[in-house]
Design a protein that fits this description.
With 171 residues, this protein is an alpha/beta fold. Helix content is 32%, strand content 18%. The longest helix has 17 residues. The protein is globular and about 45 Å long.
Length: 171
């Protein structure tokens, strides 16, 4: 029973992850009360577009814009309401964390921020194409962090088109 939902769309770009949820809800006639959406994105132009697009789906939702890169987000930016169930969207962003001195943000710093800022029920939607094993290491690090540091369970995981282990798949 979910009474209230807050969404954090990390590295949101033009808000496609959040828009996808609204589209899914519309197509499947699902009614959820989304009270707050936090859009985190370093591009002010992308943030403005995301807000505009999302408001076309839900004109009543409160949208907070966090115009920062992930390394610059602080706990003060995250006005978490303890009564909310939180949906975290990471669409094509976790694989861009620094690895071997390449990447755009510090994954460990982000994981620490999330773990100290959010309580109660959190769902993480981490979506990314299989690029190559070294790049996808960040996805494994992300999920392992919560398995080791919080009561967590994996609801769904990547499955290749051929139903094989993605580490062996080239598609």
């Amino acid at each position: 029973n979910i009474n209230e939902i807050t969404i954090y769309d990390w590295g949101c770009g033009q808000g496609l992850a959040t828009i996808s949820l609204y589209e899914y809800m519309r197509r499947n006639r699902i009614r959820l009360k989304i009270n707050h959406i936090y859009l985190v994105e370093p591009s002010s132009l992308a943030l403005e577009r995301a807000q505009k697009f999302i408001k076309q789906y839900d004109s009543n939702v409160v949208i907070n814009l966090i115009n920062k890169g992930l390394d610059n987000v602080t706990s003060d930016d995250l006005s978490y309401k303890s009564s909310s169930t939180v949906l975290h969207f990471f669409s094509n962003i976790i694989d861009l964390a620094r690895f071997n001195n390449e990447g755009f943000f510090d994954l460990d710093k982000l994981l620490h921020l999330i773990s100290k800022s959010f309580y109660k029920t959190n769902f993480f939607f981490v979506i990314s194409p299989f690029i190559y094993p070294a790049r996808n290491n960040n996805l494994t690090r992300f999920s392992n962090y919560f398995f080791e540091n919080a009561k967590s369970e994996m609801i769904s995981r990547r499955v290749c088109k051929k139903r094989q282990n993605c580490q062996n798949c080239k598609e």
